[in-house]
Amino acid sequence: VPDPPPIEARGLVKRYGDFTAVDGIDFDVAVGECVALLGPNGAGKTTTIRMLTGFSPITDGSIRVFGRDVAKETRVVKSLMGICPQEDNLDPDFSVRKNLLVFARYFGMEKNLAARRTDELLEMVGLTEKADGIIMELSGGMKRRLMLARALLNEPQLLVLDEPTTGLDPQARQLIWQRARHMREVGITVLLTTHYMEEASQLADRVIVMNEGKILLEGEPDVLVQNEVGQEVVELWNVSDAAREFIEQQDWPMESVESRLYICDRVGGEVAHAIESRFPEQDRQIRRATLEDVFLCRTGRALKD
């Protein structure tokens, strides 16, 4: 019998009164895989994570973690995973090191092991020099790295990262990405939520795109972009009436958001050439297609509203 997968969700529903936050989704995560739940705020990503980690009761359906039913075996499930939540829940009364040592007690870790793991993890997240400092002195990026270290204390087989880099500057974001890649390399299974298209592209083997509580589509980032959008996107603004009329007569997949037109060029070069040759004055930008465009083409709205 093959080992059960790290995550198996079936018909998962979460309702708050009349509002359905997660609407009957199915997904699996395989051993050693890094999967990103990608979608705008309010898509149901964090609600899904909260049900998975046993912090929010499931309305309907089921989630199994390594074959254990989350609803029935919550404590066991929590001990199998490391969780890095969105909100900072570090203890401000303790030093950086003490935050990890106290957390290690929850897992019944004996003192010497806890001290060794703490030092190893502080080293890994680049906080050794801050070990005796207080939480208040840490930047947002440092706090996030400390929470990542804390999530890894019990050597989990599954790591859950909820919006790991929201609100961080680009440099701090890169540091978190580096550590997350390291997790993948050592074979830890990772599930992360994000509304950053670049984060999903950089880290995930597979992306599950969510919108309004449902799964829109899923697949490898590059494959999704190629299949849904193509190679390039031609972005136009201050579009002249003549250009707009010409474009609307073509059979090009496109979306208009605010005053911009986004045209998907499946082949690469065809759309840009047609517009440049007829409307040389038209304001335009040609760029590689991204996951952001996949979302835009499917929903008609931007990932970051």
UniProtKB/TrEMBL annotation:
Pfam families: ABC_tran. It is found in: Cell membrane. One of its GO terms (molecular function) is ATP binding. Keywords: ATP-binding, Cell membrane, Membrane, Nucleotide-binding, Translocase, Transport. The keyword Metal-binding does not apply. Signal peptide: none annotated. The keyword Cell membrane applies. PROSITE patterns: ABC_TRANSPORTER_1, ABC_TRANSPORTER_2. GO terms for cellular component: plasma membrane. Residues 7-237 form the ABC transporter domain. InterPro entries: AAA+_ATPase, ABC_transporter-like_ATP-bd, ABC_transporter-like_CS, ABC_transporter_ATP-binding, P-loop_NTPase. SMART domains: AAA. Belongs to the ABC transporter superfamily. This is ABC transporter domain-containing protein. It comes from marine metagenome. The lineage of its organism: unclassified sequences, metagenomes, ecological metagenomes.
